[in-house]
Specification:
The complex is a heterodimer of chains A (175) and B (507).
Chain A lengths: L1 H9 L13 H8 L13 E7 L5 H8 L12 E3 L8 E5 L4 H13 L5 E5 L1 H5 L21 E3 L6 H15 L5
Helix pairs in contact in A: 2-6
Chain B lengths: L2 H6 L3 E2 L3 E2 L3 E3 L2 H13 L2 E9 L2 E8 L5 E7 L4 E3 L9 H11 L2 E3 L15 E2 L7 E2 L16 E6 L11 E7 L2 E8 L7 H5 L4 H8 L7 H16 L5 H29 L3 H22 L8 E2 L2 E2 L5 H27 L1 H7 L7 H7 L3 H5 L7 H4 L22 H25 L17 E8 L4 E8 L5 E7 L6 H7 L8 H8 L3 H5 L1
Parallel strand pairs in B: 2-16, 3-6, 7-8
Antiparallel strand pairs in B: 1-3, 4-5, 5-6, 9-10, 11-12, 12-13, 14-15, 16-17, 17-18
Helix pairs in contact in B: 5-6, 6-7, 7-8, 7-14, 7-16, 8-9, 9-14
């Protein structure tokens, strides 16, 4: 273990520069967020991820945000275990009817101000599952969605941009 | 002649079903098939409904031959297989939920995927009925002194899929775990019915995102079997290449994640780097990090660019260099093994009974790997010296070891594939669907285990019935048994070491 640690200490970090808030894409996303409260959230944003029936492809890419290349936490973004600790709900999947109630309850358990991000094509409009007897078809059908991150699944970089947009807007610099 | 083959010869064979025989049986033969399963002469590979019929796929005792038996159900009922062979119980509960067919004498009468939320009953039957009022789901009981229940999910603490776990514990010790799944049921089979092959392929690739290649692979092979299509040789090798890259990415990610659940973060960080390398290579070579929609009926949708060879070789070199020290790190960290050795033991007898596939089966002495026993191309041309890694301990440690060995094997396979890949040539043939109906079955080894695909096409070339069975169907129940007498705090470790799919199971 010492050898691995020592080697890593000597080599350059793998972490890549993130997309910055002057990225026009982020500014555009942030501009779309409608804030009822523009209070500053300090330096952090707590995210609660909810799988509302995804195929788990989105989860894989969201998990990748924590690896050495993307290192989500350097931006002050972190995933929390409970909705009660969350500022942002990051929702994936076409919202299956069997998950509808759980998603609603999670939203209700999240303190205001709170924002909802629909991540992935399914969460945006149900994607290839729309029209199914078992799916609601898109998070916006049951929750107010602030930001949409497209992709099937969205790439980690795409996810990062969307999350940074919320943070930028939450700090009141763009909104 | 093996007992199963003898039995099958008495049924009437369906000519259009390829490549393995499907026979229509009467009630007696259906019951005899169930008895063979119960006696361990065959393994259940799947059980699925149809309008007015029930199908069951069986693997015979040589593990090299598959049979499908079909029992017509004109009265909407069939004798329950779960009555004598428990691995069929959840499948039969599902058949009842979706088709309204009644498994007579089914030991567990509760619904499974139907949570009373769809607004209709039996969505895949000829005439779906309006939803009846949902009953309260009664969990199984445990009796004894000082027992308490812990309800977990469907929303979990981590970034994982939804499902409900009901623990009954005595202090820290788990007395009983019961799973309740179905939260991610998306109605895939209904969406597929009547869909074009292209649309169904898109859906097949989104049944379980981590196994998108395996599903697309199985679906494509089933369609090709149904229509007797031979795909170009280059595509044969490319598919297997993608399948091994997917296996590699998942094994690497999960080995790290299991160690992380034992608070050994360095392994997680290091394996995460290697996983990301695999995904980036996949993106550069096949334009998608998870290789979604890359395998299609008729071949592959994308070709490997000429720069891809060197890129994949570089990836193999990188992992070959970086991974062995990580194996050593695992092997030398006693505090980590203190958590994994002896934890979450899946008994070989149970694993055998359930026909538990993948690394879970192989960590509990069930030496089945569809790449070896069923040797579909190109594995038939390459795996002559391929040893299936098998251990008998069945604990978290054994499952990690199997996966570490499979990482090294996948790397070796990828190198062989690159060497054997035809340098040029088409990668896709057109599907001439319309005008010909047909049925096909395929079994493909995904990272998690064998994925079964059954496809029946109608004369217009559209999907009449498609059923995809995730390996998790036969793994989830074993997890319930494996956690018994472990402490609650070890559940994440056990669960991650199984890593069953929720979405693949719920469909």
């Amino acid at each position: 273990m010492r050898k691995i640690l020592f080697k890593n200490f000597l080599r350059k970090p793998l972490t890549e520069p993130g997309p910055f808030s002057d990225d026009p894409e982020i500014a555009a996303l942030a501009g779309r967020i409608n804030f009822e409260a523009t209070r500053r959230l300090g330096r952090g944003l707590a995210i609660r991820e909810i799988d509302a029936g995804s195929c788990n492809g989105c989860e894989l890419e969201i998990q990748a945000l924590g690896n050495a290349f993307y290192d989500l936490e350097r931006f002050g973004l972190r995933f929390v275990a409970a909705p009660r600790h969350a500022d942002v709900l990051l929702v994936t999947g076409p919202v299956t009817k069997n998950m509808r109630e759980a998603l609603l309850r999670t939203y209700e358990a999240t303190p205001s101000p709170k924002w909802v991000i629909a991540a992935g094509s399914c969460a945006i409009d149900g994607h290839c599952f729309s029209g199914s007897y078992a799916c609601v078809g898109g998070v916006a059908e049951i929750l107010p969605v602030d930001v949409e991150i497209p992709g099937c699944p969205p790439t980690p970089l795409g996810l990062l941009k969307g999350l940074l947009a919320v943070m930028t807007a939450a700090r009141g610099t763009t909104a | 002649m093996p007992k199963l083959a003898e039995l099958i010869s008495k049924g009437s064979r369906v000519a259009t079903h390829q490549p393995w025989p499907r026979v229509v049986v009467d009630e007696d033969l259906w019951l005899s098939s169930a008895a063979l399963l119960a006696e361990g002469h065959a393994t259940l590979l799947g059980l699925w409904g149809d309008v007015d019929a029930i199908h069951m796929a069986l693997l015979d005792s040589t593990q090299r031959q598959i049979f499908v038996v079909t029992k017509p159900c004109p009265n909407g009922a069939f004798p329950s297989v779960g009555h004598v062979h428990p691995p069929a119980i959840r499948l039969e509960r599902t058949v009842r939920d979706l088709f309204g067919l009644e498994p007579v004498d089914l030991p567990d009468e509760r619904p499974w995927l139907d949570h009373g939320q769809w607004g209709l009953c039996h969505p895949l039957s000829r005439a779906a009925e309006p939803q009846k009022e949902a009953e309260t789901y009664e969990f199984l009981t445990a009796e004894g002194e000082s027992l308490h229940q812990i309800a977990v999910g469907p929303v979990h603490a981590g970034i994982i899929e939804p499902g409900h776990f009901r623990f009954t514990a005595n202090g820290e010790t788990v007395v009983r775990l019961e799973e309740r799944l179905g939260y991610t049921h998306k109605g895939v089979e209904k969406l597929m019915a009547g869909a074009t092959i292209d649309k169904a392929a898109e859906l097949a690739g989104r049944i379980s995102g981590d196994s998108t290649v395996a599903y697309a692979y199985a679906f494509a092979r089933a369609v090709e079997a149904a229509l007797a299509i031979t795909i170009p040789p280059r595509a044969v090798w490319l598919r297997a290449l993608m399948a091994e890259l997917e296996r590699l990415a998942n094994h690497l990610g999960d080995i790290g994640a299991i160690c992380n659940d034992a608070a050994f973060a360095i392994m997680h960080a290091q394996c995460g780097i290697l996983r990301e390398h695999v995904l980036r290579t996949a993106r550069n070579c096949f334009s998608h990090r998870l290789m979604m929609d890359c395998i299609v009926p008729g071949g592959t949708r994308v070709d490997l660019p000429s720069s891809g060879f060197e890129e994949i070789r570089l990836l193999v070199r990188t992992i070959n260099k970086a991974f062995p020290p990580l194996i050593e790190l695992y092997d030398n960290t006693a505090s980590l093994q203190d958590r994994t050795v002896g934890t979450g033991r899946a008994r070989p007898a149970l694993v055998q009974q359930y026909g538990c596939g993948g690394f879970i089966g192989r960590a509990s002495a069930r030496a089945f790997d569809a790449r070896v026993q069923l040797a579909y191309p190109p594995y038939d041309a390459i795996l002559f010296n391929y040893d299936v890694p098998v251990l008998a301990e069945g604990d978290v440690n054994a499952r990690i070891w199997i996966r570490m060995r499979e990482v090294l094997q996948s790397l070796a396979l990828i190198e062989q594939f690159l060497a054997r890949l035809p340098v040029q040539g088409a990668v896709r043939v057109a599907i001439k669907g319309p005008g010909r109906s047909g049925e096909g079955l395929a079994l493909v080894e995904g990272f998690r285990g064998d994925v079964l695909a059954y496809v029946r096409l109608d004369r217009s070339g559209k999907i009449e019935r498609c059923h995809l069975r995730d390996p998790s169907w036969f793994q989830w129940p074993v997890l319930e048994a494996a956690i018994e007498n472990n402490i609650v705090a070890d559940f994440p470790l056990c669960n991650k070491s199984f890593n069953c799919s929720y979405s693949g199971h719920d469909l």
